[in-house]
Amino acid sequence: MILQGPILCFVGPPGVGKTSVGRSIARTLGREFHRIALGGICDQSDIRGHRRTYVGSMPGRIVNGLKTVGVNNPVFLLDEVDKLGKSLQGDPAAALLEVLDPEQNHSFTDHYLNVAFDLSQVLFIATANTTATIPPALLDRMEVLQVPGYTQEEKLEIAHRHLIPNQLEQHGLTPQQLHIPQDTTQDVISRYTREAGVRSLERKIGAICRAVAVKVAEGNRVPETSSSGQEPQQEDKAAPPEMPIVIDHVALKDILGPPLFDMEVSERLTLPGVALGLAWTPLGGEIMFVEASRMEGEGQLTLTGQLGDVMKESAHLAISWLRANAKTYQLTNLVGGPDPMEGTDIHLHFPAGAVTKDGPSAGVTIVTCLASLFSGRLVRSDVAMTGEITLRGLVLPVGGIKDKVLAAHRAGVKRVILPKRNEKDLEELPANVRADLDFVMTGNLDEALNASFDGGFPGKSSVRSHPQLSSKL
């Protein structure tokens, strides 16, 4: 019987449990589990094997994995399938096409065996951080399941149900010796880690357990005796610590040091020309500041922050739309003229300049940032936004909504501006996140600007037509 089930591919940021889910599937099905790390493989012989005429020839990783587990129906986890390489020795991604195709893998031929082998009973599960680097033909063989990052509440439950008990066991401690309150765990999550998964959180909890283990070992240390059998006198003998050792905020700072991350959203939005956007990365959603300044010049636009071509186009679109609507929105330049760019140079900067940024979803943020700069008004400090723009002022849908909204929730944002056509994506969000945030669904830039400023933004609230078409209507 040929297994015609789908080839699952879990796509998500690191540390969200993709590999653990694959291992749990194998345990639930009662099958053997074998993990194949594909990161860095650049030789197709690693998949198909070497011919026996070569010195040091061996089977490929698929057949070798079957030999390891000893059965023909295991669960194979193809880890990091997005990090396959390519070299003069062939393309391993192309060799995987036959392995992951249910219509062909019943007669898979390994070069070492040189006979057809039936892989139809094997359940293949792949993991990846992003689908951008997976070849389209290979991606077509798999059914992609997005695994987003965790919310603050989910991380708190994971820490107290799994991470803390596991770390206590690994460090030889008991709950009677160490107690980490939920407030302390929340502080670790928000101020010492900034990630979509829980890998860094587990490391921080491990650091706390090691510090406590030292204190417990020092308190239980047996004093050394001299050759005469008498205990040497110790002037400063430390008293054993009281059990359990409770980790409060003071002890947390002593162990982990000063906080690594601060809630800087309100501090950064104190001047006109600053807006808060939302970006998607392979590591999860992130907040992204956009800053703009102007000075006397010749109407030039300077872009910094290691931007891609698509994001540069979004900046030019934002400038063109604001210039076309400057009179309607009462925007002026430094000398008070009707054209915001006349005699004015604009510098648009995206901080974290060492990180490459690209994509169309920053369009709404750039427009809001420049509108704040030209009008001299402050953007609301609790607003984050995302969305692609057009030259007509429409706001188009973008991807990664769940990861972006979770990043806004982690940063303490209260209002999120999203494209109206992304409203269906809100159903994927946890109920507590939807309750904590105020979502404003916008179809055009006029609605986005009104939601970004206190008291709205003076503009086309009464006139909705395009300025170039209003004379013809």
From TrEMBL:
PROSITE patterns: LON_PROTEOLYTIC, LON_SER. SMART domains: AAA (SM00382). Keywords: ATP-binding, Hydrolase, Nucleotide-binding, Protease, Serine protease. Residues 223-232 have a biased composition (Polar residues). The active site is at S361, K404. It comes from the Eukaryota. Residues 220-240 are annotated as: Disordered. Residues 269-455 form the Lon proteolytic domain. Transmembrane segments: none annotated. Belongs to the peptidase S16 family. This is Lon protease-like protein 2. It comes from Characodon lateralis. The gene is LONP2_2.
